[in-house]
Amino acid sequence: MRATLRLGLTCDNRCVFCAQAGLADGAPRPALEEELRRLRAEADELSFVGGEPTLDARLPEAVAQARAAGFARVGIQTNGRHLAALAPALARAGLTDVHVSIHGAEPAVHDYHSGAPGSFAALVDGIAAARAARLTVAATTVLTRSNMRALSALPPLLGELDVAAWLVEVPRAAGRAAAAFDRVMPRLALALPFALHALDAARRLGLAALIRGAPLCRLGPLDGWRLADEPRSYGATCAACPARAACPGLDPIYLERFGGDELAPRSAVAPLPVADERARLFVGIGERAAASAAAPPPADDARRRLPLAGKVQPALREVSAAAPRRSGAELRELFPDLFRREG
Question: Which of 31, 112, 253, 316 is the most buried (most CB within 10 A)?
């Protein structure tokens, strides 16, 4: 079993989906040695989480203390921006693994999600430094409206970086992900096929590839790829579903906004995959901001439904009718790859 220990909530990223945004550090915590002793009685592995634990000057000593307390494996959950400088020292202190967040295979995609220009380049350098220090690296990608179509580019990059395991995570509607729900949260009937296709590509490359937070009825025969998750909420369709006890459901804000038109009962569920040492690195973020602090969902007449069958609903205009039109020549400059001829 792997326990988690939070060193603080300070972070130098400003992720668009951060479920901890709005949390404040609470009352003073017990001494580190006391907390390590308590956790060691419950688990034989440990991950330091944040916030961003690499911003805490105590981290190398905390890692050394954790190993001295008897933890067989000690990891950190990190945005990876400072790993290039810290990985060698952390490895010498006894660190065994790192769990990074990566949300696209190129700077434009990742840096948009992290809210920190330059974070992709720093992360890639950090992963390389971690592997050079013989640390196991696992990576999580949060599934959003903005990256769902770009997920297929990630498996080749993760393979090049020698990442051992990859998790696609459905975001929770808390913190910034709740306050900016329409900017962040994808319709899962649209997004999950992209995610499952990318996970399949990752598995073909030898990566341990998993998904967490998706309703089981949207995973179809690939539900054996899931990682266990805390239950969220359930639609009316879920009441008679035999798989409900094993299903994480959907966030209440998601159900309020879209209804349950994507959900359907299913009769059988594949058993959870065996949680090997790579899967145990995906410990989650722990405490989250309250979803109730977010802006309320829109009224029913503003609800955006996915037309799964029947009459197609009108598209929403995303560009003003008064916006100037682009000429063909201008489009060639904006999207040169679309106009490039082969041969």
Answer: 253
Q: How far is it, in rounded angstroms, from Cα 36 to Cα 46?
A: 9
Rounded Cα–Cα distance for residues 236 and 286 (Å): 28
Ranges of residues in the chain whose predicted pLDDT is under 50: 292-297, 299-312
Which pLDDT score is estimated for 302?
A: 44
Residue among 116, 108, 257 at smallest CA distance from 181: 257
**Residue ranges per structural domain of the chain:** 2-310
Contact 157, 105 (CB under 8 A): yes
Give residue for tokens 């594949």: 270
| Cβ partners under 8 Å of residue 101, min gap 6 | 15, 78, 79, 80, 114, 139, 140, 141, 142
Domain 2-310, classified CATH 2.130.10.10, yes or no: no
Strand, coil or helix: 223 = helix
Give every CB contact of residue 216 below 8 A, 6+ residues apart in sequence: 223, 226, 243, 246, 247, 266, 269
Report the 10 Å Cβ neighbour count for 123: 29
Distance CA 118, CA 81 (A): 9
The token pair at 325 is 């039109």
Q: What is the pLDDT of residues 317-334, one digit of tens each?
A: 555 667 777 666 676 776
Lateral strand order in the sheet of 45-49: 2-6, 45-49, 73-78, 97-101, 136-142, 165-169, 208-212
